[in-house]
Specification:
- The chain is mostly helical.
- The protein is 61% helix and 0% strand.
- It has a domain of 34 residues.
- Helix 1 runs antiparallel to helix 2.
- The protein is elongated.
Amino acid sequence: MTTQKPAPVLLKEPLTITLDKTFLDSLNAYRQAVHAEQWPPLGQSGNQPSEFREEQRVAALRAAVELADLVSEWANSQHP
């Protein structure tokens, strides 16, 4: 049986974060996917543009969740 952890402390002050390589990789993945979702490669036909947009939307969501997790972990380490 796993013991439930308490909810994280609510943050009440601004955070200042220095983006290391891990943060930058996640942020760049998000930014690239959001851009690519809006601009599918030229020359695609049929369902290709919509499939490409969906793949990029999923990639952006995945990167956003990863970035949010990193920020949350960092905040928890600063405010245990």
